[in-house]
Amino acid sequence: MNIIICTIGKLKEKYLKQGIDEFLKRLTPYAKVDIIELPDEKAPENLSDSEMEMVKQKEGERILSKISDDTHVIALAIKGKMKSSQELAADLDRLATYGKSKVAFVIGGSLGLSDEVMKRANDTLSFSKMTFPHQLMRLILVEQVYRAFRINRGEPYHK
């Protein structure tokens, strides 16, 4: 399986990079995982609603330019579907079984994802009703993807 994590913003925190690198290394036997970092749109603190939409639209265009038509897209969003680790594992297993070898997880910037990205998404995923920094979501996501492959192989790790 080819997995893409398409994300807005550059990861700066060393401790997050180290965690992500560790799980990417662990994922090597299971899947090819690429992280595509796209620049966030520069914006002042106090944006109007229309300015916020414009920022999300520009970031969304960058995201969509990196996703091919044959890719199954899962958008991470607060209003997405909450799933257990086992449910995510079953989803990935089902996608692989039915020939969807390209899966992209999309993480928006601090304002979220554009309507266009949400329309392109085949599925949505939420890890919590809480808001997390999008940089931290990368680490959480890559750990859960690793956990999903371990679950699907019946290997120890998941408790």
From TrEMBL:
<feature type="binding site">
    <location>
        <position position="76"/>
    </location>
    <ligand>
        <name>S-adenosyl-L-methionine</name>
    </ligand>
</feature>
<keyword id="KW-0698">rRNA processing</keyword>
<dbReference type="InterPro" id="IPR029028">
    <property type="entry name" value="Alpha/beta_knot_MTases"/>
</dbReference>
<keyword id="KW-0808">Transferase</keyword>
<dbReference type="GO" id="GO:0070038">
    <property type="term" value="F:rRNA (pseudouridine-N3-)-methyltransferase activity"/>
</dbReference>
<dbReference type="InterPro" id="IPR003742">
    <property type="entry name" value="RlmH-like"/>
</dbReference>
<dbReference type="Pfam" id="PF02590">
    <property type="entry name" value="SPOUT_MTase"/>
</dbReference>
<comment type="function">
    <text>Specifically methylates the pseudouridine at position 1915 (m3Psi1915) in 23S rRNA.</text>
</comment>
<comment type="similarity">
    <text>Belongs to the RNA methyltransferase RlmH family.</text>
</comment>
<dbReference type="GO" id="GO:0005737">
    <property type="term" value="C:cytoplasm"/>
</dbReference>
<keyword id="KW-0963">Cytoplasm</keyword>
<feature type="binding site">
    <location>
        <begin position="127"/>
        <end position="132"/>
    </location>
    <ligand>
        <name>S-adenosyl-L-methionine</name>
    </ligand>
</feature>
<keyword id="KW-0949">S-adenosyl-L-methionine</keyword>
<protein>
    <recommendedName>
        <fullName>Ribosomal RNA large subunit methyltransferase H</fullName>
        <ecNumber>2.1.1.177</ecNumber>
    </recommendedName>
</protein>
<feature type="binding site">
    <location>
        <position position="108"/>
    </location>
    <ligand>
        <name>S-adenosyl-L-methionine</name>
    </ligand>
</feature>
<dbReference type="InterPro" id="IPR029026">
    <property type="entry name" value="tRNA_m1G_MTases_N"/>
</dbReference>
<comment type="subunit">
    <text>Homodimer.</text>
</comment>
<keyword id="KW-0489">Methyltransferase</keyword>
